[in-house]
Write a structure and sequence with these properties.
The protein is α+β, with helices and mostly antiparallel strands. The chain has one helix at residues 65-79; strands spanning 4-11, 14-25, 28-35, 38-44, 50-53. It has one domain (4-79).
Amino acid sequence: MEDQFSFEVMYKGAERTFNGRLQPRGYTYRFEVDVDGVMVYFEPDEEQNLRAVIPPEEKGKIPPGELLRAIGEAIREILK
């Protein structure tokens, strides 16, 4: 997999395209995704599911949970 990639997500009946970037971090990794101008990091949790992490400076602009779940699912599909 390349460090940068694009992927599509269906959300509220519309297909949306997002750009992601793989960020290796020691023994683990995370994906950085620009979601409507907010940098969201998707990283594996203890059960290897992807959780969305939003930096404190972005807390006032949190994207909808449904959209974050759809993005996480799309990234998991890419990893298969």
